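Internal ticket #5521
Category: modeling
Description: The requester needs a full-assembly model to guide mutagenesis choices. All entity lines are attached below as received. Residue total reported by intake: 902.
Assigned to: D.W.
Attached entities:
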Amino acid sequence: MILKTVKNAEDAVSDISNGAMLMMGGFGLSGIPENCIAALLKKEVQDLTIVSNNAGVDDFGIGLFLQKRMVKKMISSYVGENDEFERQLLSGELEVELVPQGTLAERIRAGGAGIPAFFTPAGVGTEVAMGKEIREFNGKLYLLETGLTADFALVKAWKGDTAGNLIFKGTARNFNPMMATAGKITIAEVEELVPLGSLDPNEIHTPGIYVQRIFQGEKYEKRIEQRTVTTG
Amino acid sequence: MILKTVKNAEDAVSDISNGAMLMMGGFGLSGIPENCIAALLKKEVQDLTIVSNNAGVDDFGIGLFLQKRMVKKMISSYVGENDEFERQLLSGELEVELVPQGTLAERIRAGGAGIPAFFTPAGVGTEVAMGKEIREFNGKLYLLETGLTADFALVKAWKGDTAGNLIFKGTARNFNPMMATAGKITIAEVEELVPLGSLDPNEIHTPGIYVQRIFQGEKYEKRIEQRTVTTG
Amino acid sequence: MLTKEQIARRIAKEVEHGQYINLGIGIPTLVANYIPAHLDVVLQSENGLLGIGPFPKEADVDPDLINAGKQTITMLPGSAIFDSAQSFAMIRGGHVHLTILGAMEVSEHGDIANWKVPGKMVKGMGGAMDLVASAKHIVVAMQHCSKDGQSKLLPTCSLPLTGIRCVKKIVTDLAVLEIDPAGGFVLLERAPGVSVDEINAKTAGKLIVNGEIPEMTFA
Amino acid sequence: MLTKEQIARRIAKEVEHGQYINLGIGIPTLVANYIPAHLDVVLQSENGLLGIGPFPKEADVDPDLINAGKQTITMLPGSAIFDSAQSFAMIRGGHVHLTILGAMEVSEHGDIANWKVPGKMVKGMGGAMDLVASAKHIVVAMQHCSKDGQSKLLPTCSLPLTGIRCVKKIVTDLAVLEIDPAGGFVLLERAPGVSVDEINAKTAGKLIVNGEIPEMTFA
């Protein structure tokens, strides 16, 4: 096996520099690479382009990058939980490319899978279609969308082994598996780093071939955005 | 949950009739739907179009369909283990569309995922490219390939629950998961049918939404094509 | 005029046995509470879950288990987890039978707008564009008029579109309507105590009234 | 003239630490036996396995665990199983560093033919077209000439192509050659006891000989 272990988040992100394009896993605050985010905050890298379904909240996740004005451009499907985001967007400090969520997921999968472009029906007849090729298949209209890759993909898994094999838990999986395939360098942080042979090969969600660096995160806050409970 | 259980293979394939287009999981003889094959052999349906990576061997798997001349057309990537196949092909009784293996897998995934077409580099400059659109992305040439669906997908899993959730074992997984997504009716046969709640939701390979019928196969021969062993 | 809960209860009658259903944020989420128990259906959450269970008890809250509205949820026996590409493969591939979502505007041709108000905040379309471009049956839950009394059922949408010619049925606080393929809102049911005249007055798009219009009943 | 095992041993020297490698059927499969133990590499089987282990003992034979040649195999600690779409996502996406495969013909521009002989049986291309269109580095293992003495290293291929301008290096029973981007087989090494003249005589395509050509050594 090819071993991918690095010491910690600081080591993992050490070569991420100004102007880098990053993919960051997570849906809302679930499944985000908390330790990589913390390490990048310390580095205060600038002019990042970030591909992430959401943009965090004001004081957690990618919202912290926005506070420090580290982000030049966001590529996301939904960014509506963040006041600082709104301010930077309206003031022109922040560029935003909004992509339908399914198109975003598929563009990232395609990027990782060597598919340069594909047709999808999402966005036909809307401003998302502007400037894109439209073609009819079986009587329905589709847009041509392109594959997406990034300099670095930062993903968060539940368990991982030293060969980079990853297992996710619950809906914290979300965008992490396809982003892992689409980073030129993919950095995986895990709640538990286990020895080779500890994971059942049949249960692996992300094969280690996609992961260049892996480490066990120091701590996980796993903040909840909408705590909804039933009583009784 | 929506329950998908049917009694047995005969019930599962009862409405597959002459001229149907079938996808059949498996790589070589590994992971093939043995019980559905047996039930279809009894029915002796004719003029089938079959999408399968391989065509079985003379006396097992899809090879048995060929013996009974049930197949009009095969869509496969590799068919080189079958004398009767060769005879029918050379005599013009059998039509064959050869598709690069990765293109076949992706076409099936695309069909199930509502992607009508995508670009892939496999086959550029070869006879596979004949009649297909060729386009350059980032200095490399790609072919436009279309999504593939079928009237029925016959897949074989290791375990499945009554909601149609499937788990595969080893390399018997192969084409089964994407075919499950691409059948208008997907029939899953499993070695072990388990009650709802027996499978860990995190470990499911094929979510039950893709499966319309499920049953536990009566028996599995699981024949081996190339038994290779080490001694000592 | 219906309450949000009543809109949800009326929409619940659209649900059929054996359906996989995607419920949007807001009123659509409430529909889950009113689906008759004898119908076996499965709720899909586009962030990666089939088989959404009830909200958890306080002790069972799991940050790794949320719905598309980022609310903590639970799973059910037979639930399955998957990634976002697989989730939208299900949606785009037509495996989800019914999508129920909110709207800011619907046109008489079934166009829908629900993701952007130019000049105000742009929150993004999330999964809505994929859902409306893909689902076989789309039901919209919405208020008939805006807070300042403007009809939201229009000849053409004024806001940026989410999808075109996709909405099949609309349940508002005043009425149940379906889109005529040739254009127009076909009035199917009135909210209790609401007259056809009132619905007509509050529908800016073409309203089609065929014969007697019954009052709606609820699941 | 090298034996098949010697061709495999020479190719094993092309392997670098940290590579993910796809080995084709035939001679390429033998390469696995000669990869130096100090190099950490992972072998990919396109039917859905990363981390191919040795052939099983009789008692460990598992029909659910085969390689692309349908041979029974084993897994290793750290192996991962996946489906065919994921497997070719890896290949097509450039995540596999090195592909070693057989050929019936190679042209001086790096075209390769290895899947069809018109008039004879057509077995199909399997995964070869995907592999040659995608891998960053492609090494071909082949005999320099056919059984009737015809060169298989040609100006242009006569058989139906598997891929164009993709082969980087060729190891035959006579020589190691690389493809010149401008066209031509650059002779890098001779098999022990084989002369440049013999190689020249048996290479139908343009042979480029720069200076002294060393004899090959083996892993």
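Resolution: model delivered.
Comment from assignee: Chain D touches chain B through 51 residues (CB under 8 Å).
Ticket closed.
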